[in-house]
Design goal:
heterotrimer, A mainly alpha (326), B mainly alpha (359), C alpha/beta (302), A: 326 residues, mainly alpha, two-stranded antiparallel ribbon, 7% strand, globular, C: 302 residues, alpha/beta, Rossmann fold, 2 domains, 13 helices, 10 strands, disordered C terminus
Chain lengths: 326, 359, 302
C-alpha cells in the first residue's frame, strides 16, 4: 500500500520521461538490502576514520576473506583430511579469520606507520588490499559458490530449508537472505550505538578520536584502542562480506569489487565521522543505485548517478549529511 | 669533472642506450617492454598529481583509457592519421583532467581521492563501453602506422616518447612551475603571497598529468592493436589504478627516475615470471610449494600483483625513498656529481614525503 | 599621493566584528605601525589589505587604483610584499629555492617556455639565482643558502622571510611581527635593517609590531586598533602617552603594557577558520584574547 502511494507521488513529480515505466517496488527492496551491506562497510570505515583518521581501503576485503574461509570450512581438504562443518560453525570460522586479518593488518602495517603522514597510511591499506587479493587468487584460483545460509544441503541453521523460499511483501518477493541481511544490520547498528554510548571501550575510542593527547594523559592507551577499533572494523567487514556473498560465486576481490565504492560513498555521504550517518548513507546509495539501474537506461548509469550525487553532496555540503566536520 | 670522469659517464650513457635498444631485436618481449614504457609514463603522470600537488588520484586508468578510446576511434573509425589520433587523445584526456582539477580546487584530500576513484569506474562503465565506440563491444581494431608496424618498432616509439615525457617532467621541476606547485602543496597562502596564482597552477598540473596519461593511452591502443573497454572495467580498471599508485610509491614519491624504473619493472614483470616459471625444473619445484603453486591455476597476474603489493608495503615500512632513493647516488653521478653513497641526507625524497602530502 | 589608502574597512566573522571601519593611510617612503592588544584585528586588517579576506565594506586603494577585490597573487605582482605571523615559507625547500619561488611574479618566461627549456630560460634561472644570492648577502645569510628551511632557527627564519618578501620586489612591504622571537639586541638590529632597506629599495612599509622600542625607533606614524576599531593614531611619541591607548591596555604606562602583549594562536585559528578548514578543537575564543592581555598586564604591574 505504502509502496503504491510512493509510486504515485513519484509519477506526479516526474511526469515526463518515466511516468509509465518508473519502477519503484522491487528496486526499493533490492536497494535497502544492498544499502544495508554498504552501510555495514561504511560503518567499519567510519569507525577507523573516527578513531585515528585512517581511511581503510582493505575494509571490504576482510569480507572476501571471511567468505572464502567460510567456503573452506564448509568443505575443506588439507593434507588428505577432509571435513564438512555445519553452516553456522563455518560462518563463525570465516568471520573469525576475517577479523584476525584486520588485527594482523593493524599489527604489521598500521602500527609501524602510525606517525607517518596520513596519505602513507592510506597507501598502506591499499597495499594490504592488493596483498590480500593476490593471496586469495593464488590460494583459491577457481573460486566457488557460497551457498545461501538456508541451503538444505549445508545443514541449514533454521527450518527455512528451501533457499528459494520468499516471503511476499506488498506484491514483491523478498528472500530470506535479504531478511537476514536486514536483521543483522539493524542488530549491529543498535549494538554499535550501545557500544559507543555505554561501554568503557566505546567511550575510550571516542575520547581518543577527539583528543588523542588528552586521552593519553588520562591513561587511555592509544595503541590498545587502535587494536580494538581494527578488531571491530574487521568484524563488521567480515559480517558484511558474508551477507553480501549469500548464493554468490566467491572469487578474489569480490566484495571490494562490488561493495567498496558503495561503502566509501556511504561513509562520506553520512559525514565520515557519524555512525548513524553511515547507515543512512548506505541506504541512500543502495536506493539510488537500484533506482538508477532500473529507471535510467544507459550503461553504467548506477555508478554515474552515484558519482554525481557524491560530487554534489561534497560541493554543497562537504560535511556530509550528518557529519560535524569536513 | 676530470677527463676520465667524462669518459666514464659517456660510457655509462652508451651502455644505457644499448640496453634500451636491445628489446628491438625481440618480438614478444618488446611488446612487454613497450608496456613498461607506457606504465612509466603513467607513473610520471600520476606523480605530477601525487608527488607535486599532494593529492592521491585513484582513477588515473580513466585517462589512460580515454586516450586509448579517442585515439583508436579517430584512427580506425574516422580514418585520420595516427598522429592526429594520438593528439586528439591527449587533448581529450587533458580536458577531462582539467574538469577534475576544477573539482580539486574545491575538494581535496581523501574526498578527492574518492571522487577520482568513482570517476575511474564511472567513465569506464559508461563512456568506454558505448557500443558505438567499441565496435559493438567486439573491440576497435587499429593498424600501427607504416614503418612502426613491428612490436620492436613500436617499442622504440614508446621509448622515445617516454624520454620526451621524462624531459618535460625534468623541466617542470627545474622551472618556476615546479617551485610554484611545491609552494602550493605546502601552503597556499604563502604561494599567493609570492604571487603564484593557485588556481591556474593547480589546473596546469592536472592538465599536464591528464595529457601525459592520454598520450600513454594512445600508445597503449597502438601497442595492443585493438581498443577494448575490458582492460578498464572493474576489477581490472581498479587494479590498474592501484598499480599506478604502487609504482609511484615503490619508485619513490616525487622521484622521476625511480618512478620510471618501477614502471618498466611492473610492465615486464609478468613476462619475466612467465619465462621463469615456464622452465621445466622450476615448475617441478614450484608445484610443490603450497601458495605459489596457485600460479599455474588461474590468473597468472596474481603473483606479479603479490610481488607488487609486498614491494609497496616494504617501501612504506622500511625504505621510504623507494627505488629512486636507492638509485640516487648513481643518478647524481650520471648527472656529473661525485659518487657518494651517503650524501647530505636531507635532500632525499623521504623529505618530500614527510612534507605535506595530504589525504 | 599616498601609496596605500584604506577607507572604512569592515569585516565580520559570524558574531565577531573583527574590523569596524578601519581607515588608514600610508604615504610614500613612510614606515607605519599598526599596534593593539591581541585579537584587536591587526592580522585581519593585513589579510583584508593583501586580499586574503574580502572585506564586507570599505575600500583599499593602491596608488590611485581600487584593489579591494584583487586576489592576493595579483596584489603580490603589483608590489604588495608581505610576511606572516608564523613564518610563511616553503619548509621542505632549500633557502635558495624559497628565494627563487618568491620571485615567481618577476620571472620573465611563461610556464610553457619553462617546460620546453632553452637558453633564455636557463639565463633567466641564473638571474633568479644571482638575485637570491644578492639578497642573502645583504641579510648576511649566505651560509644557509643550500640548507632546508625546515631545520633553521626561528630568528633566522624571520629574517629569511623578510628576504623572501624583498625577493618579490615589493613596492609596499607589510610585515606581521617581524621581531617576534628576537631578543632586544636582535630587534634593535632589525630596526636598523628596516631603515636601511627603506633607503636602499625606496620601500614603503606597514608593520604590525609589539616591540615598543622598535615601533618608536622606526615608525613615522602609528595606528592603534582595539576590538576592530581604530582607537588612536599619531606620531609614536604622542601615541605612547595617549590616554585612551593607555586605558585600552588597562592601567600602567602604555609602553610597558604593549611590551607584554604577544600575539597568540588566536589570530591563526581565525585564519584557519576562514580558509574553510574548521579548526575543530580550538574554536577562537571571541573576546577572550583582549581580556587575557588585560589581566596579564594587571597582575604584573612592572
Amino acid at each position: 500500500m505504502s509502496v503504491a502511494l510512493l509510486g504515485h507521488a513519484a509519477t506526479t513529480a516526474v511526469p515526463l520521461a518515466f511516468d509509465t515505466q518508473l519502477k519503484i517496488g522491487q528496486p526499493l527492496i533490492l536497494g535497502i538490502v544492498q544499502g544495508a551491506i554498504y552501510g555495514l562497510i561504511g560503518l567499519g570505515l567510519v569507525l577507523l576514520y573516527k578513531s585515528n583518521r585512517i581511511f581503510n581501503f582493505a575494509q571490504a576485503e576482510f569480507g572476501t576473506i571471511a567468505g572464502l574461509c567460510t567456503l573452506l570450512a564448509l568443505n575443506g581438504r588439507l593434507f588428505g583430511i577432509s571435513w564438512h562443518m555445519p553452516y553456522a560453525v563455518a560462518a563463525v570460522v570465516g568471520v573469525l579469520i576475517g577479523t584476525l586479518t584486520a588485527v594482523a593488518t593493524e599489527r604489521l602495517v598500521i602500527r609501524p606507520l602510525f606517525n607517518r603522514p596520513k596519505v602513507i597510511l592510506v597507501v598502506g591499506t591499499v597495499g594490504v588490499l592488493l596483498t590480500l587479493i593476490a593471496i586469495e587468487s593464488l590460494a583459491f584460483p577457481q573460486g566457488d559458490t557460497l551457498p545461501a545460509f538456508n541451503d538444505p544441503k549445508q545443514g541449514a541453521v533454521t527450518d527455512l530449508k528451501d533457499p528459494s523460499f520468499r516471503v511476499g511483501f506488498a506484491g514483491y518477493n523478498v528472500s530470506w537472505a535479504q531478511v537476514l541481511t536486514l536483521i543483522v544490520l539493524v542488530a549491529l547498528a543498535l549494538g554499535a550505538v550501545a557500544f559507543f554510548r555505554y561501554s568503557r571501550q566505546g567511550t575510550a575510542i571516542l575520547a581518543v578520536s577527539q583528543e588523542p593527547t588528552a586521552a593519553q594523559a588520562v591513561g587511555i592507551s592509544v595503541s590498545r584502542v587502535s587494536l580494538l577499533t581494527w578488531t571491530l572494523a574487521g568484524f563488521l567487514g567480515s559480517v558484511a562480506g558474508l551477507l553480501a556473498l549469500q548464493s554468490t560465486l566467491v572469487g578474489p576481490g569480490i566484495v571490494t569489487g562490488t561493495a567498496l565504492v558503495g561503502g566509501i560513498t556511504a561513509a562520506v555521504l553520512g559525514g565520515i565521522t557519524s555512525l548513524p550517518g553511515a547507515f543512512l548513507g548506505g541506504m541512500l546509495v543502495g536506493l539510488i543505485q537500484t533506482f538508477a539501474a532500473a529507471n535510467v537506461d544507459f550503461r553504467g548509469s548506477q555508478s554515474v548517478v552515484v558519482g554525481l550525487v557524491l560530487l554534489l553532496v561534497l560541493l554543497v555540503k562537504p560535511t556530509g549529511l550528518l557529519g560535524s566536520e569536513a | 669533472m676530470t677527463r676520465a670522469g667524462i669518459t666514464a659517464r659517456g660510457g655509462a650513457y652508451l651502455v644505457l642506450g644499448i640496453v634500451l635498444f636491445l628489446p628491438w631485436f625481440t618480438t614478444d618481449f618488446a611488446k612487454f617492454c613497450s608496456l613498461g614504457a607506457i606504465y612509466a609514463m603513467m607513473g610520471l603522470s600520476l606523480n605530477i598529481v601525487v608527488g607535486y600537488t599532494g593529492q592521491l588520484s585513484l582513477g588515473h586508468q580513466g585517462f589512460l583509457g580515454l586516450g586509448a578510446l579517442v585515439t583508436a576511434n579517430v584512427v580506425a573509425q574516422a580514418d585520420l592519421p595516427s598522429y592526429v589520433g594520438i593528439a586528439l587523445g591527449v587533448l581529450a584526456s587533458a580536458a577531462v583532467a582539467i574538469v577534475l582539477g576544477l573539482v580539486a580546487l574545491r575538494i581535496t584530500g581523501l574526498y578527492l581521492s574518492l571522487i577520482t576513484l568513482v570517476f575511474g569506474s564511472a567513465i569506464a562503465t559508461s563512456l568506454f563501453a558505448l557500443p558505438s565506440l567499441t565496435n559493438n563491444n567486439s573491440g576497435v581494431q587499429l593498424v600501427r602506422p607504416p614503418y612502426f608496424s613491428g612490436n620492436g618498432d613500436w617499442y622504440l616509439v614508446c621509448v622515445v616518447v617516454l624520454l620526451a615525457v621524462y624531459y618535460l617532467d625534468y623541466r617542470l621541476t627545474a622551472s618556476k612551475t615546479g617551485r610554484a606547485l611545491l609552494a602550493i602543496k605546502e601552503n597556499e597562502r604563502v604561494a599567493e603571497a609570492f604571487g603564484i596564482g593557485v588556481t591556474s597552477y593547480k589546473l596546469l598540473a592536472f592538465a599536464l598529468s591528464g595529457a601525459i596519461a592520454g598520450l600513454a593511452g594512445g600508445l597503449y591502443a597502438f601497442r595492443s592493436e585493438i581498443y577494448s573497454d575490458k582492460d578498464f572495467q572493474d576489477p581490472q580498471g581498479f587494479a590498474l589504478a592501484l598499480l599506478f599508485v604502487v609504482l609511484c610509491v615503490v619508485g619513490g614519491l616525487g622521484n622521476r627516475l625511480g618512478v620510471v624504473v618501477a614502471g618498466v619493472f611492473f610492465g615486464i614483470l609478468n613476462d619475466l615470471l612467465d619465462r621463469l616459471f615456464g622452465i621445466g625444473w622450476v615448475k617441478d619445484v614450484v608445484e610443490n610449494i603450497p601458495l605459489l603453486k596457485g600460479y599455474y591455476g588461474a590468473n597468472k597476474g596474481s603473483l606479479a600483483s603479490l610481488i607488487g603489493s609486498l614491494l609497496l608495503l616494504q617501501t612504506l615500512l622500511f625504505n621510504p625513498g623507494g627505488i629512486g632513493g636507492q638509485l640516487r647516488p648513481l643518478s647524481r653521478w650520471m648527472t656529473g656529481n661525485r659518487f657518494e653513497l651517503h650524501e647530505a641526507a636531507e635532500s632525499g625524497p623521504a623529505a618530500v614525503e614527510g612534507s605535506s602530502v595530504r589525504a | 599621493m599616498s601609496v596605500l589608502e584604506v577607507t572604512d574597512l569592515s569585516i565580520r566573522f559570524g558574531g565577531l566584528q573583527a574590523l569596524a571601519g578601519l581607515t588608514l593611510t600610508v604615504n610614500e617612503f613612510e614606515i607605519v605601525g599598526l599596534i593593539g592588544p591581541n585579537g584587536a584585528g591587526k592580522t585581519t586588517a593585513f589579510n583584508c589589505i593583501t586580499g586574503f579576506y574580502t572585506a564586507d565594506t570599505g575600500s583599499v586603494v593602491y596608488r590611485g587604483r581600487d584593489v579591494t577585490r584583487t586576489p592576493p597573487h595579483k596584489k603580490a605582482a603589483m608590489g604588495f610584499g608581505r610576511t606572516f605571523q608564523n613564518v610563511g615559507m616553503v619548509k621542505s625547500s632549500t633557502v635558495l629555492d624559497n628565494l627563487k619561488t618568491a620571485q615567481h611574479a618577476r620571472v620573465r618566461y611563461d610556464a610553457g617556455a619553462g617546460l620546453l627549456g632553452g637558453s633564455r630560460v636557463t639565463a633567466e634561472e641564473r638571474a633568479l639565482e644571482q638575485k637570491s644570492d644578492a639578497i642573502l648577502e645583504l641579510l648576511g645569510l649566505t651560509e644557509v643558502r643550500d640548507l632546508r628551511v625546515g631545520g633553521l632557527s626561528y630568528g633566522t627564519l624571520k629574517l629569511l622571510e623578510l628576504g623572501c618578501a624583498l625577493a618579490t620586489e615589493p613596492d609596499i612591504l607589510l610585515l606581521d611581527e617581524p621581531s617576534s622571537g628576537m631578543g632586544p639586541e636582535e630587534s634593535h638590529q632589525l630596526g636598523e635593517r628596516l631603515l636601511d632597506l627603506r633607503k636602499a629599495f625606496g620601500l614603503t612599509m606597514l608593520l604590525i609590531e609589539h616591540h615598543v622600542p622598535l615601533v618608536l625607533s622606526v615608525c613615522d606614524h602609528v595606528y592603534v586598533l582595539n576590538f576592530g576599531q581604530l582607537l588612536a593614531e599619531g606620531e609614536p611619541t604622542v601615541i605612547q602617552t595617549h590616554p585612551e591607548v593607555v586605558a585600552a591596555y588597562l592601567g600602567g604606562e602604555a609602553p610597558e603594557a604593549l611590551a607584554q602583549t604577544h600575539e597568540t594562536a588566536e589570530d591563526e585559528a581565525l585564519d584557519d577558520q576562514l580558509a574553510h578548514k574548521p579548526a575543530v578543537k580550538k574554536a577562537p575564543a571571541k573576546k577572550a584574547p583582549a581580556k587575557k592581555t588585560a589581566s596579564r598586564a594587571k597582575k604584573d604591574p612592572s
